[in-house]
Structure formats: structure tokens, C-alpha cells
Amino acid sequence: MSDAHPLLPAATPLLRSDAADLQVGGVDTAEGLLVSPQPEGLAGLLRGLDGRRVQRAVVADAARAGLDAGAVGAVLDELRAAGLLVDVDAADLLASDAGPAAAARRVVELPPGGGWRNRRAAVVVVEGATRVGTPLAAVLAASGVGRVSVRDGGLTAAGDAVVGGATAADEGRPRSLAAADAVRRASPLTDLRPPGAGASPDLVVLARPWAASDPTTARWSRAGVPHLVATVRGATGVVGPLVVPGVTSCLRCADLHRRDADPRWPQLAAQLTAADPPPSGSTVTCLLTAATAAAQVLAYLDGSAAPAAVDATLELVPPELVPRVRRWVPHPECGCTQRTDRPAGDNGP
Asked: HEC profile for 30-75?
């Protein structure tokens, strides 16, 4: 790991129980590492790990300062094994925006194992400037996603205002412009343009209340574009399923399972998608739904963990708002995991 760029997040506690011991992390439920006895000057060395130096340079500097190079290297390896140390890709440093605010954001937002460059190169489209969609777009931008575009042809209503999203002053303005302003407030340098002609986004978030049952969303499956539902229906926040066309169950699978449970479902779903319902969901529910959805999007873009919303929905029901997992396995009548090129006339999910 001599070519790694180690970074110890500034928020990681360095705690001393006595002069000989140094505990790195280990508060709450997070894993920690106890260094005993600690080499003199180790705490200062660890606090200076900002990801800008390769590990061999860190060790060499430590040796010149009188520390044992082997012991320092061993501590860094153990911190890495404990998940406390982040290895920054050298390209991540080049991909971050100039300026102290952007540099500070990179330090705190950098995902485990690096990957900042992946986020900066990603294109995410949010369908629906809703009380979930707009703050979600702002969170993704602040988390390092390079291009975030919000699509919505409607006008902002008073009920659309929410913390991190549209404001009361946006009433009557195009929803897409209000959403763009919310994203700019969170991350002024984020690219707000939609994908170029012929280009596909890396992921689409369907933030309208009943998008999961709307036949028009089938185009994303046909185009092979991953997509995630993130919305509030009534008082319940719903995140998922996250559909990877040809790999996971799709939105049509969920509709078919609903039909199996209730033959009236197709008729009911058609009524639900006939018109946009009024804004709903408490502020806490909307923001928690947006944050939960953002975590799923980032897990997918980073490739660091399997998103929990694959083949499932995470439902946030007040007042507890603890995610309830509802599984949606591929439906045998759908065939979505065998092919992604459905005919243009297929209603899809």
C-alpha cells in the first residue's frame, strides 16, 4: 500500500486514556483501534493524514521525525483494516473543485475506499421536483455527484416548499427552476444540465408519487438505464425498488405481484397515475425519504456496497419511520431479467 494516499477523516476521535495509549475511533458503535504503547508523535502524524501524500512519503516523513517506520506502517495498515483510514485515489484530488469550500466538502464527503472521481463523473436525473425529489437532488449534488438534472414541467405550489428544496418564494415559478436553485444553494458548482443528445444518465430517480405504476417509466427499462423510486405516498415514504435492467426485478414485476394479491390492482393503479396528487408527507418523512434514497444512489454509483433497495422497497411509515423492507422478486410473467429490449409498444413496468 506504499502508493496509497491515506486520509484519516478529521472527525475521527483520537483519544488518550493515559500517556502510553492512543485510541483511534471506537466511539458509539464504530470500530476503533487501540495503539499501546503509542509512539511519541503518532497522534500528530495521524491528524495530518489528509490524503495528499502517498503512504511511503508519510512513513519516510515519520522516520525523519524519529518514529519507527515499521511501526508507523503497521499502524496505518491496521487502521485501514479497521475501516478507519480512507485511501484517496490520486485522481480524486484532481477531480475535486478548486477553492477551500469544495476542498472541505471533499474531505468530509469522500466515500470509503475513495471513489470521488466516480461521483464527479456521474450523471443523475431526478424525475419530479417534489418535496422528496428536490431535496434529494440537493443532497446528491452536495455529496459530490457531478451532474444532477431535475425534470418537471409543472409550476411550484405553496405546498411544495420544504427544507432543502423549494421555498415559499418559489410559488408560481417553474418547478424545474426552483429545483435548480435549491441544488445551487447546496453545491454552486454542480452541473445542472440534462444529459446531452443521445447520452443516457447513469441513474434516474423517479420522485413522483405513483411513478412505479406509471407505464411511461418503461422507457428507462427499454433503454437499459438503472432507475430508483423515491417518493411519499400519502404519509409513507417509499424508496425502491432500484432497478438495474436485465439484472434485478423491475417495476412491472412489483405491479404483477400486486395484481396477484389483488386482481383489482391494474384498475386502481390507472386511477393513481391519471393525475398528480397534491404534495403530501411531513417534512421529516420527506427529508428522511430523500436521505434514504440518496444513500441508495450513492451506494450504486460508488459500487462499494449492494444497495438495500435492489429487489425491494424501503417503506418509512410514521411515526416510527424505521425502514420496513418489502421484497419484490422477479415475476415469472415479466421476463425482465432475461431481456431488456422490449418492443416499443410494450407497456413495461
From this structure: CCEEEECCCCCCHHHHHHCCECCCCHHHHHHHHHHCCCCHHHHHHH
CA atoms within 13 A on the CB side of 58: 30
Q: Which domains does the chain have, with CATH numbers?
A: 5-88 (3.90.930.60), 122-327 (3.40.50.720)
Confidence of residue 1 (pLDDT cuts 50, 70, 90): low
Element containing residue 203 per DSSP (H, E):
strand 203-206
Q: Kindly report, residue by residue over 136-170, the tens digit of the pLDDT.
A: 999 999 999 999 999 999 999 999 999 999 999 99
Residue 72 CA, distance from chain mean position: 34
Contact 328, 312 (CB under 8 A): yes
Q: Give me 89's grid cell.
A: 485515489
CA 10 to CA 341: how far, in whole Å? 48
Q: Could you tell me which of 143, 84, 83, 139 has the C-alpha nearest to residue 116?
A: 143
Contact 251, 204 (CB under 8 A): no
Q: Which three cell numbers stand for residue 278?
A: 397534491
Query: pTM, whole model, 2 decimals?
Result: 0.78
In tens, the pLDDT along 262-309 reads 999 989 888 888 887 788 899 999 999 999 999 999 999 988 778 999
Alpha helices in 208-264 (DSSP H): 218-222, 251-261
Instruction: Measure Cα distances from 276 to 2, 254, 255, 271 in Å.
Output: 56, 21, 19, 10
Chain Cα centroid distance, residue 244: 16
Tell me how far apart the alpha carbons of residues 338 and 121 are, in angstroms, rounded to a whole number.
Answer: 29
Cα dihedral 26→28→30→33 (10° resolution): 10
Per-residue cell: 257:
405481484
In this structure, what C-alpha cell is assigned to residue 268?
A: 386502481
List, edge to edge, every strand of the sheet that includes 14-18. Answer: 14-18, 21-25, 32-35
CA 24 → CA 53, 85, 259, distances in Å?
20, 10, 53
